[in-house]
Amino acid sequence: MKAILTVVGQEKPGIVAHVSTFLADRNINILDISQTIMDDTFTMMMQVQLNENDDLQDLITQLRALGKKIGVDINLRNEELYRAMQQL
């Protein structure tokens, strides 16, 4: 399943490294990535390919914990759900 991962928080070194390492350790492929810094706020959006045996809720919980550890907000949504929300 494809999913959309978003990261928002205070700009600091290592955000991309932490998130991409988390994904690589779980064999989750990054299909597309976009990031920018607005003033001092870091924003990143990734399209990722989850493995068929990945538990979405478990990944969300782990990513939120990672975000708390590094001081950013991380969200993960099923791409189909994300796109449907954007159309409303």
From TrEMBL:
PROSITE patterns: ACT (PS51671). Residues 4-77 form the ACT domain. Transmembrane segments: none annotated. It comes from the Bacteria. Belongs to the UPF0237 family. This is UPF0237 protein IV45_GL000730.
